[in-house]
Amino acid sequence: MPDKSADSKRRVTIVDVAKAAGVALSSTSAALNNRPGVSDKTRRRIVAKAEELGYTPSLRGRSLSSKRTFSIGLVIQRDIDVLESDPFFGSFITGIEEVISHKDYALVLQISKSERETLERYRKLSSDGRVDGVFLNELKINDARAELVRELGLPAVAINSANSLQFPNVRQDASIPFRQLTELLISQGHTNIGHVSGPQEFLHSYVRQHAWEQTMHLHGLRIGPVFHGDFTYEGGKRAASTMMRQTPRPTAVVCSNDLMAVGFIQGCKDLGLRIPQDVSVTGYDGIALSTYIRPTLVTAQTNPRHLAREAAEMLMQIVDGGHPENRTIPPASIVLGNSVGRAPHK
Amino acid sequence: MPDKSADSKRRVTIVDVAKAAGVALSSTSAALNNRPGVSDKTRRRIVAKAEELGYTPSLRGRSLSSKRTFSIGLVIQRDIDVLESDPFFGSFITGIEEVISHKDYALVLQISKSERETLERYRKLSSDGRVDGVFLNELKINDARAELVRELGLPAVAINSANSLQFPNVRQDASIPFRQLTELLISQGHTNIGHVSGPQEFLHSYVRQHAWEQTMHLHGLRIGPVFHGDFTYEGGKRAASTMMRQTPRPTAVVCSNDLMAVGFIQGCKDLGLRIPQDVSVTGYDGIALSTYIRPTLVTAQTNPRHLAREAAEMLMQIVDGGHPENRTIPPASIVLGNSVGRAPHK
DNA sequence: CTGAAAGCGCTTACAG
DNA sequence: CTGAAAGCGCTTACAG
C-alpha cells in the first residue's frame, strides 16, 4: 500500500459531531450556525465537541442543501496585452476581498477576451450555479450583460452604471473632477483644449468627455479637437502625433485616463514639444505611473478599492436577500503634478 | 405575490432527463458524462432529451458526490499599494484562465496581506474543500506553505521553486538572463557593477543575485555594492540615492526587477546623473513601463502567462490523478533598450 | 427546545 | 447494457 495520502483520513462530518454530542443532527446544525432552536447549554456542548473533533463544515454539503455557493464572480474583459498594465484590476480585487473574505465568501475571477466570451461567462457562471452573484463592471452603453443577467435571475451590482439600469449601483462620479481639471486649464489661460477619449462604447468614456464639453461651454469656449483613444499608452501616443500636428494645435489636452495621458506626453516629447511649456496635459485615475514620469501628471485620484468594497458589501446584502440602496463614494480628488502650466502666448 | 423572480422556475435536473428519456438515472449520468455503460443509441436519445429540456448539470450536485470542486486556488500576497503596479498578476491569471476555462474549472483568487494570513488562506481553502488544488507562487526560502500544503494533502504545483521541494514544478530560469545582462555590462567596459536585490527571503531574489555574483567572479571581477530592495519603484529610488553617493560609485547596476530599475533611474536623475553616460542600468521582467521611460530599459522579457499556462496544465493533470513531470520554459530573452552604455573613463 | 426524516443534484458500486 | 439504491454532507420543514 504505497499510498497513505490524505485521502485516507475521512472527513469529520456534522453527523459525527451530533453523535459524539449525543444530540440530533438538526440541533447540531442550529448550534453550529448560531441559529435559534437549541438551548444555550446544548449549544455550548455541541460547539465544544465540534472543536474537539476538529469539525469544519463542508462547503460542498452546505452548498447543495442551501443552494448557495458562497462565491461571487468577477469577469474582466481585456485585450491580453492591456491587462498587465491595468491598475484598476488589482485594486478592485483587493477591495472585494477585504469585504467578502470575512463573510467566508470567495471570489471567482474570470478573464475574457471578447464581448461574446464575456456573455458566455456570465451565462455559464449562472447555469453551473457557480456563484451567488456577479459584478457588472466597466459597463458599456446598452451593455448586453444587463439584460442577460436579469434574464438569468443572477443577483448583481453595477459599478458606475447609468441610473437607468435596474441594478443596485455604486458610483464615483467622474464629471466633477473632469470639470475641475478642465477649469484648471481654463484658469491657466488655455482656450483651445482638446480631449483624448476612451472607446466610445464605454459609459465612462462618455461621462468624461461630456463633462469636458459641458465645462467648455459653460465658460463660453468652443470645444477643441477630440481623439478617440483606447485607454492605452500607445493610444495616447498616437493621439499626440495626430492631434498635435494640427494647426492651430491645442495648448492643453484633457485625457480620459492616466495611461493615455502618459502616452500623450511621450508623444509630445517625440514631436519636440515641451510639457507644460508648449502643452498642458491632464489624466484621470491616479495610477502610480503618473508619479514616475517627468513632469509628474496632473490627474485625479480615483479609488477602485473603495468602490469595490462598497460594491462587494452591496452584493453581500443582495445575496442575503436584502435590497441595498445605491451608493456613491466621494469623487476623485485632483492631484497636482507638473504637467499643467500657463497657456503659451500666441 | 410580488415576487415572480427566477427562483420560481425549478432547475431541470438529471432526474427529469432520466424520466423524460425513460431510462435509469445511472444510464443518464453515464451518457451525459461520456462514460461507458450505455449503448450508443440510448446515449444519443438521452443527450437529445437533455438538450431539449435545457438540462445543465449542477456543479453543486456534482461537487458533493464526486468530491471535487472544479476550482483551483491562487493566493497572492502583496502589500496593498504594490498590487496595483504589479505586472505579474494580470498576466499570470490570464495564463491560468486560458487553460482551465476549457476544462470547466474556475479560478478562486485570494489576496493576502501577510504571511500569517496567507497560510490561513491555504488552510481554509483546504478545510472548506473549496478548491481541488493550489499554486505555490512566489516562494520564499523555506516557505512555510510547502509543509502546510503537504500536510493538508492539497494538490499543488510550484512556480520557480527550488528543486528540493516535493511538488511538481515549472520554472523559467533567471540565472541565464542575469548572467547575460551582467556580461553585457562587462563587455561595455564596466568593472564596478552593483546590484539592487529583492527581499532576501524570496527564492527568486536569491537566484538573481547569485547569478550576478557568479558572473562577476567568472570574469575575475569583485562584486560591487548590494542594496537590499523590495521590488518597488520607491525601493529602486532609495537604492540610487544610497548607492550612488558612495565613492567610488558603481558605473553600472543590475536590478532584480524592472520596477526597481525604473525607480533607480529616476533616483539617478534626481542626483544629476545621466543614464547611460554616467550609469548603466538593467532590469528584469519586461514590463510595459520599461518601454515608456527614457532611456528605455535594458531588461529581459519574462513570460508569466506562459509560466501560468504550464502550471495550470500540470495542476489539471494532478487533479485528474496524474503525476506530471517538472517543466521548464525558455529563459527570458534580453531586450535592448538605451539604459546601458560604455563605462565612463575614470 | 429536540429528533427523525426528507431533500438538495449528482455519482457510483452492485445486482440483474 | 440497464436499473434500483445508497451515499456525498449539509439544511430545513415538521411533529413531538
TrEMBL record, chains A, B:
Keyword Transcription regulation assigned: yes
Q: Which domain of life is it from?
A: Bacteria
User: Is rRNA-binding included in the keywords of this UniProt record?
Assistant: no
Under Gene3D superfamilies, the record lists: 3.40.50.2300, lambda repressor-like DNA-binding domains
Q: Name one Pfam family in it.
A: Peripla_BP_3
Boundaries of every HTH lacI-type domain copy: 12-66
Cited SMART domains: HTH_LACI (SM00354)
Keywords from the UniProt entry: DNA-binding, Transcription, Transcription regulation
Q: Which SUPFAM superfamilies match?
A: lambda repressor-like DNA-binding domains (SSF47413), Periplasmic binding protein-like I (SSF53822)
**One of the record's GO molecular function terms:** DNA-binding transcription factor activity
- UniProt-listed PANTHER family: ALANINE RACEMASE, LACI-RELATED TRANSCRIPTIONAL REPRESSOR
Q: Under which name does UniProt file this protein?
A: LacI family DNA-binding transcriptional regulator
Q: What's the source species' lineage? A: Bacteria, Bacillati, Actinomycetota, Actinomycetes, Bifidobacteriales
